[in-house]
Amino acid sequence: RKEVEQDPGPFNVPEGATVAFNCTYSNSASQSFFWYRQDCRKEPKLLMSVYSSGNEDGRFTAQLNRASQYISLLIRDSKLSDSATYLCVVNIQDMRFGAGTRLTVKP
Amino acid sequence: DVKVTQSSRYLVKRTGEKVFLECVQDMDHENMFWYRQDPGLGLRLIYFSYDVKMKEKGDIPEGYSVSREKKERFSLILESASTNQTSMYLCASSTIRQFFGNQPQHFGDGTRLSIL
């Protein structure tokens, strides 16, 4: 079983839609969690950290469920510029990346 | 802002050549990492380093070595390049905060390496 698993997608949604990505991790000792965004042929960039109580940054909401070893990212009111691959990252002793979920937002 | 600089965006080498990929960060970060990224496989950790002269194997170290002589510089070396090492190589750095542990990684622009 992979340490970090994501639905690879692709997710194709219209502008304005709400879309949710899920990520599961296998190591219960995982300490911290992040979502990264990667545009085509570019490097991954930190989107947001994920806190135990859940956190929100504008249209983006991240949640963590330690009991189920599950992280989610919700994007509301999708924009064309949200089109990217979203990587779930889990920190144990080092960062473990999911393979990413590809999102395409269409007009 | 953290700046992680990789020496080349695109590189073409021949099978059997020794290849050096250089990475420099300007934020005095303790941790540095080398990944490769291939379609459908995501980011795979090759080597990482938590301090000068320290190195640890990641998930796929075979065929690679690293060097960290100075804190700001982490070099990846392909001892004898092979075609299956054609990939996107990403360098990253991060720091450690007391009580909070490893902080998020910051990535360089990546090097697209082609081995012919």
Number of strands of chain B: 13
Helix content of chain A: under 10%
Radius of gyration of chain B: 14 Å
Report the average pLDDT across residues of chain A.
92
Q: Which class do the helix and strand fractions of chain A yield?
A: mainly beta
Number of helices of chain A: 0
Largest contact between protein chains? Answer: A-B, 19 and 21 residues
Q: Mind summarizing the main beta sheet of chain B?
A: 7 strands, mixed
Mean pLDDT of chain B: 92
Description:
The complex is a heterodimer of chains A (107) and B (116). By secondary structure, chain A is mainly beta. Chain A is 0% helix and 55% strand. In chain A, strands 2, 4, 5, 9, 10 and 11 form a six-stranded mixed beta sheet that branches. A five-stranded antiparallel beta sheet of chain A has the order 1-3-8-7-6, with no helix packed on it. Chain B is globular and about 45 Å long. In chain B, the strands form three sheets. In chain B, strands 2, 4, 5, 6, 9, 12 and 13 form a seven-stranded mixed beta sheet that branches. A four-stranded antiparallel beta sheet of chain B has the order 1-3-8-7, with no helix packed on it. The A-B interface holds A 8, 31-32, 34, 42-46, 49, 87, 89, 91, 94-95, 97-100 and B 33, 35, 40-43, 45, 48, 58, 90, 94, 100-102, 104-110.
